[in-house]
Amino acid sequence: MGRLHIIYRNHLLDPMNKREKWIVFLMASCHTMVHFYEQIFPALFVTMVAYFHIQISTAGWMQTLLAMAFGFGGLPAGYLADRIGSKRLIMVYLLGAAFSCIFISTVHSVAALAIGLAAMGAFISLYHPAGTALVTMQVKEVGKGLGYHGMGGGMGVAVAPGLAALLAAVSVKYGWRVSFVVFGALGLLVAAGVAALKVSDTHSVNANSRFWPEHLARGSPKPLVLFLCVGVLVGFCYRGVMTYLPTYFSQNLNGGIFAGHNVLKGGMFATVTLLVGVLGQFVGGYLCGRYKLEKLFAVLMIITVPLLLLMAVLSNITLLITAMLFAFFHFSAQPVGNSLVAEYTDARGRGLGYGLYFSTAFGFGSLASGFSGTVAEHYGLNMVFVPLAGVIFIGVVITLYLARIRETGNCSTLDA
Length: 416
Fold this sequence. Notes:
This protein is mostly helical.
């Protein structure tokens, strides 16, 4: 009886079993690699602009090419996740992205670089719908699972600039190639772990089933459509900040503890800043089960608006602290947003639902790299953050409207 009590008590204290923990760990590792691949080029902007003799706006549009493939590839990826199962799709992502990264390490022309970046973007687009759907379908505590999964992505976003810059520091001219090779090798290592994973893709459906639109939204499609619009705006801000933060730090953190080589300095302090975002991922996942999701999302995002405006005018330590606060609140909203998508979609089309969400968020959001590069070229890099603050404010307004119509019953109640 005492043994049963201990088992029961442990289950209450830690309801995620070993199998679920292993799934979350591997999916979090896959998520880390997605953002390694997504962030490596922005982290090396200064070095690669000089090596290939291109303008920063050109580099921005090249990152847009990667980001656009990353974003719009999410829609067919979501469809495939529901049809063929997540594990197969995740393996294609890991192998394709790793070899694309290694290919980039060998290129000598701008055209080849662009092709490599586009291919890498297309392969990493396969992950989010498949991996996120897998977590929501096979982990009992969805909010907590998505929180840990988000932390893995946050680690990728955070560590990529510093690690890429550190590896590039081995050689002024060719160090960037070392970064791409190492990141590719890490992807192959994670692929080996996923290959050994035993997963029953319970969210897969029969190939003859119809998901659209009957099996996509739970109840009224209006909440999902509205939140997809919010996803576009938040994705636009994310892409704009992530593309230029290392470069902005390299120009605006000076003297004292900020002394040093620009590329290394920008990458390392971007990593320090974004590690705070990992903590935000955990906090956001923890809060998911305690507050109404729409209002929680709106509160977390509205706090980032004045922080973005302050980042445009500050420098040195005050800039670093403000950027850390932005990272915390911005990333804390991510598991909340992912939980909302799970709430708005039917399990039979969950992968497609996440495909739509990530496709709109990262696809249309990808335009921020080129847009922000043009803003930087004409008005200065600091002015990049001003329109991004306006974009987030509009997203908050839409989210509050969504919360209001759901409370007042102006859209159909979601099915259980």
